[in-house]
Design goal:
Number of helices: 9
Mean pLDDT: 85
Helix content: 40-55%
Distance between the termini: 97 Å
Order of helices and strands: HHHEEHHEHEEHEEEHEEH
Largest sheet: 4 strands, mixed
Strand order of the largest sheet: 3-6-10-9
Strand content: 15-25%
Structural class: alpha/beta
Oligomer: single chain
Number of strands: 10
Radius of gyration: 32 Å
């Protein structure tokens, strides 16, 4: 008799536990679901203007949307650790504030790395730039790339002019009377008030936006179909043209893509 009573008690306890395990999760789910429904109902009762106003009020509280945001504040927000003098604040279309590496610094880093053929330091880029940067406008070709570029231009069936590099490293053009449309485009770039620096290289150096450190960027290793990488600073453009080591592209494809870039 005692044994039967004990069995009954155990059975009752098991049943109570089973009921509890079913009821409590179901209760919690309904409670949470009711909260969500109430939130949706609350939002549904608001006009679009009210919702937009609430969104804008919440947005304005964020550092990245405030006009008075400083570089220090934005660095903390985006977890950026580089020195302040490397960056400038820019505004996205939605009003969001971001910080990017100054174009002038990235340009000097890229040029210094190209000329020195090694990773430069931030402390020496100004000196290298002042001492070795070409002064005139037009198309200047890096010394290691001159022979290859002139050979291509003078053996291109769509070009009729004769091309050569002058003593200062600038691309020049002869036979102006026989110019094709592409020759005319190249001529326009040669005579431009802007400056174009060109090097055939599948890597370059740049400043990592997060760490502020100079890194080697092997853009062709990431994308063998990428025809070039470039840097701009005001009226100057520095273009690294793919070496196409894996022959994934035709030379004419690379040439056409660079011409389109320079026409922008």
């Amino acid at each position: 008799m005692k044994k039967n009573r004990k069995d009954i008690i155990i059975l009752v306890i098991v049943l109570l536990l089973s009921i509890t395990l079913v009821i409590i999760p179901n209760f919690l789910y309904k409670t949470e679901n009711n909260k969500e429904n109430n939130y949706e109902i609350d939002n549904n009762n608001k006009t679009s203007d009210e919702i937009e106003q609430e969104y804008n009020e919440n947005k304005e509280k964020l550092i990245i949307y405030q006009d008075q945001s400083t570089i220090d504040q934005l660095k903390k927000e985006y977890n950026i650790s580089g020195d302040n003098e490397l960056y400038q604040i820019e505004t996205e279309k939605d009003g969001r504030k971001v910080i990017n590496v100054k174009p002038s610094i990235n340009y000097k880093v890229a040029f210094s790395g190209m000329i020195e053929e090694k990773m430069p330091s931030l402390e020496e880029i100004d000196r290298i730039f002042d001492e070795k940067y070409p002064k005139k406008s037009g198309i200047w070709i890096n010394e290691n790339s001159r022979q290859k570029i002139v050979h291509y231009l003078n053996n291109n069936s769509r070009l009729k002019a004769n091309y050569y590099i002058d003593k200062e490293g600038y691309l020049q053009q002869n036979d102006e009377k026989r110019l094709t449309e592409i020759d005319k485009k190249v001529k326009k770039l040669i005579d431009s008030s802007k400056q174009y620096i060109i090097s055939v290289a599948s890597k370059c150096f740049m400043v990592d936006a997060v760490t502020g450190k100079i890194i080697e960027y092997r853009y062709n290793d990431l994308d063998t179909y990428q025809t070039y990488e470039y840097f701009e600073d005001e009226d100057k453009m520095l273009i690294f043209i793919s070496e196409n080591k894996e022959n994934k592209l035709k030379e004419d494809e690379i040439f056409e893509s660079v011409i389109k870039l320079l026409e922008l």
